[in-house]
Design a protein that fits this description.
135 residues, mainly alpha, elongated
């Protein structure tokens, strides 16, 4: 008795030569298209055209940076008479140092005080009144 594998193999044995022909034609077609697709290195213009999307993206980023970094029109107006002059750049740093010193002082615990003296354990409390009278 034949196994199911032998039965299926017998039925499809006739298709093997036809499949081999199809495979050979497919491989030959791929080989000819690869040979025809080989290109020269290209010109400088072709290289620039291939970069068009990159250049467009970088240009958009530069435009966005220019818009975000644009100077505020209110700041560019001339100073009003009587208005205080702008602070020098170092003023901010000095103010920050002062603030941090104040903050450190406020955060530190208060200085410890000496504890109150403890009466000596050997002194008789009944004799304490006698010492106070003589003093």
């Amino acid at each position: 008795m034949k196994t199911p594998r032998e039965i299926i193999f017998g039925r499809h044995q006739e298709a093997v030569p036809a499949l081999d022909d199809i495979r050979e034609r497919a491989v030959a077609g791929i080989a000819t298209t690869k040979a025809s697709e080989s290109r020269s290195p290209g010109t400088f213009i072709e290289f620039l055209v291939s970069l068009r999307w990159h250049v467009a993206a970088i240009s958009a980023l530069w435009l966005l940076a220019a818009m975000l970094g644009a100077e505020n029109p209110e700041k560019s107006l001339p100073a009003v008479a009587g208005a205080p002059p702008p602070a020098p750049p170092m003023a901010g740093i000095l103010a920050w140092r002062e603030y941090s010193e104040d903050f450190d002082e406020a955060e530190s615990p208060p200085p410890r005080q000496a504890p109150a003296p403890i009466p000596h354990a050997c002194i008789d409390p009944r004799r304490e009144s006698e010492r106070n009278d003589t003093a």
